[in-house]
Amino acid sequence: MLLQLRDVYAGYDGGDILKGVDIAIAQGTTTCIVGPNGAGKSTVLRVLSGLLRPRKGAISFDGRSLVGLSPRQILALGIVQVPQSHSLFPSMTVHENIELGAYLLKDARLIRSRLQEIQALFPLVKLRAREKAGSLSGGQQRLVEFARCLMLDPRVILLDEPSMGLDPHTFKHVIETIRLLQSTGRTIVLVEQNARTGLSLADQGIVLENGQVRLTGTHTEVLNNPEIARLYLGGTLSNT
Ligand SMILES: Nc1ncnc2c1ncn2[C@@H]1O[C@H](COP(=O)(O)OP(=O)(O)OP(=O)(O)O)[C@@H](O)[C@H]1O
User: Fold this and answer.
1) What residues make up the domain containing 93?
2) How many domains does the chain have?
3) How many angstroms separate the CA atoms of 213 and 5, rounded?
4) Which of 47, 121, 165, 219 lies most in the core, judged by the most C-beta atoms within 10 Å?
């Protein structure tokens, strides 16, 4: 397994939010974590990115422990989180924003070649390179945020509720962008409120409830689990 959490306990001043979480993620797959508000989904991403140190338990990435590493060290190992929207600098150009994604890199040639790869994958990044990021549509800005994270050539991409607050058009754009990231063979860990959509993008589905993994399975196993369907995927999500 590329990424593994074993019996992880983590939380804030108020006590543990994650209470013995076990998650195993294979290289090149997409895992979607669903569950009710407050279940600890974002907290799982926080322990993976190093923003929150687990109180107990093990987290390993490609055979090495991540516990105790700083967010910067974890980033340098190739685990990046795409920030929730509005993280671009609107008065800077698209190109300048993309370049900021390379801030850990020193080698100008490497930066150039990464930029070319990203432009090939996201033609918009080249087409609109000189325009201010703030002049792009919401969906285009999200796309630039996703593209920017590729400057570090990450092995793992963490996405926290990428669909949150988006209009249907932008939402479609974001789903297409996630599919594009998947096509590059990246490992993706996705937390998604829109459980049906999130799970349909994923190889593996994880239902987190009250800081514990309630169910792990393929996305169809999770989608078809009668109890899960009733609790989390019921009528309200059926038309998304
Ligand atoms: N920085 C923080 N300090 C203290 N408590 C926090 C902090 N961040 C989150 N919490 C608490 O931890 C619990 C789990 O939060 P988390 O964000 O992981 O939930 P979630 O499953 O992602 O749900 P949501 O969809 O509501 O974000 C919540 O009760 C929340 O109030």
Assistant:
1) 79-153
2) 1
3) 11
4) 47
Residue 123 lies in a domain: yes
Distance between CA atoms of 119 and 94, rounded to whole angstroms?
11
Contact 31, 206 (CB under 8 A): yes
Q: Give ligand 1 pocket residues (Cβ under 6 A).
A: 12, 14, 17, 35, 37-43, 193
Which residue's alpha carbon is at the smallest distance from atom 9 of ligand 1?
Answer: 43
Ligand 1: centre distance to CA 211 (Å): 10
| Collapsed DSSP state (helix, strand, coil) of residue 212 | strand
Q: Rounded to whole angstroms, how far apart are CA atoms 226 and 223?
A: 8
Residue nearest to atom 16 of ligand 1 (CA): 40
User: 124 lies in a domain?
Assistant: yes
Q: Is residue 1 part of a domain?
A: no
| Average confidence (pLDDT) per 10 residues, the chain, 240 residues | 97 95 97 92 96 96 95 94 84 94 85 90 92 91 89 93 80 86 93 88 94 93 84 51
Q: What ipTM score was computed for the predicted complex, to two decimals?
A: 0.92
Measured in Å, residue 12 CA sits from the centre of ligand 1 at 9
Residue 102 domain-assigned?
Answer: yes
Q: Which protein residue has the closest C-alpha to ligand 1 atom 28?
A: 38
Residue whose CA lies nearest to ligand 1 atom number 2: 12
